[in-house]
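User: We ran a pulldown and think these components assemble together. Before we commit to crystallization trials, I'd like a predicted model of the whole complex to look at. Sequences follow.
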Amino acid sequence: MSKKFLIANWKMKLNAEESIQLAKDLKTEISKAKFGADKEIAVAPDFLSWQAVAKILKSSKVNMACQNAWYEDKGSFTGEISLAMLKDLGCQYAILGHSERRAFSGETDELVNKKVATALKHDMTPVVCVGETFEQRKEGRKDVVIMRQVQEALREIDIKPEQTLIVAYEPVWAIGSGQAMNPAEAEHTAMIIKQSLIDVLEHQDLPLVKIVYGGSVDSKNVASFTNIDVIDGALIGGASLDAKEFINLIKKA
Ligand code: 13P
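Assistant: Here's a predicted model for the assembly, 253 residues in total across the polymer chains.
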C-alpha cells in the first residue's frame, strides 16, 4: 500500500494558546498511536504560533508545514515571510494557492507558480491547491478550471528525483461545508489532474507527484477517499483541530 499524506491546515482558527495546546495534545496522542512509515503527517499552524508548535512537535512523527509564504528569499516585502526563512526553521511542506488565499488575498496562478518554484529550490514539498467554485461546477466548467490551475501552477517546474510535489484537490464548495465531494467524482477529477500533470510535466517522473483530496474530510469519510488508487491522502481543515479526531482520521486513512 502506498504512503498516505495527511496534512492539517489550522487556518486562522486558533489563538496562540490554543495552537500550543493542540500541538501538545497531538504529541501525546501520536506517541500512543505509533504510526508507521506508511503515514506522512504534517501540520500548518498560523505564523504567530508556528515556532512554538514546531518546538513541541520536534522529534515527533509530525512534520511542519506553512499555510502560505512569499517566494523571494529576503528583501523589502513588508508583512511577508519567505519560504527560505521557513525552511531554515525546519518547515518541510508549503501549502500554496489555497482557495481562501485566491479568493481573499488576490493570489494568482502566476504567483502560485513562483512560490512552487521557490519551494522546490529549497527542497520543500509544495502542496499546490486547486479547486472549482460552486458556480464553475454548476456551469460544467470544473474540469477545464482544474486543468488550467494545474498547468499554470506547474508551468516550467522541474522536480528533482528526490523531491515530492503534492497537488491538493479541494472543491471550494466542499470546504468547511460538512458536505464532502462524492468519492467517485473526486476520483474522476483526480484522473483529470493526473492527465494535466502528464501534459505539463512532460518527460518528468510522475510518481514524484501525489494527489490528495480536501474538503470536509473527517474520520468517518477519509477512507472513502484514501482507498482510491489515484488519491494519496488528504488536506484537512476542521477535523484537524481536535487531536483525538485527527489521530482517528489518520488511523482510518
Ligand atoms: P475543511 O476540512 O474544514 O473542509 O477544510 C479543508 C481545507 O480547506 C484544508 O485546506
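The pocket of 1,3-dihydroxyacetonephosphate is lined by residues 9, 98, 170, 175-176, 214-217, 235-239 (CB under 6 Å). That may be worth checking against your pulldown data before setting up trials.

User: Thanks, that helps.
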